[in-house]
Amino acid sequence: MESEDLHSFLADPELVELIEQAKVSDDILDAITLTENQHSDMLAWCLTPDEGHGQGHSVIKDFLEAAYRASDSAIWDNKKFFRRVTRQC
Fold first, then answer.
1. What is the four-CA torsion angle of 73, 75, 79, 81, rounded to 10 degrees?
2. Exposed / middle / buried, residue 63 (Cβ in 10 Å: 0-12, 13-18, 19+)
3. pLDDT at 21
4. Which of 62, 67, 88 is nearest to 79 (CA)?
5. Quick one: angle between helices 13-22 and 3-11, nearest 10?
């Protein structure tokens, strides 16, 4: 199959409509079944800056910044931890 044929197939409006009708969720984790170790491996891949996803530190930085914002009502010392860690990313 030529690459043009593949692009034509994937761009076919009927295929796109069938895919949309078959969707039951927008969350990839609802569409696939992973074991606990596979979940851990996937998270490790996402959060490791030098992996092949090309996002560098942005995934872990965004996660830590969201955790920092969510720690306003923390009863332990989370706010101080997240403040320090997000400055280092």
1. -160
2. middle
3. 77
4. 67
5. 60
Which has the closest alpha carbon to 48: 38, 57, 39? 57
Q: What is the pLDDT of residues 58-67, one digit of tens each?
A: 888 888 888 8
Predicted model pTM: 0.47
CA distance 58 to 88: 12
Q: How many residues does the chain have?
A: 89
Q: Say how far apart CA 83 and CA 89 lie, in whole Å.
A: 11
83 and 68 Cβ atoms separated by less than 8 Å: yes
Q: Do 51 and 45 form a contact (C-beta atoms < 8 A)?
A: yes
Give the number of domains in the chain: 1
Query: 22 is in which domain, residue-wise?
Result: 3-88
42, two tokens? 């996937």
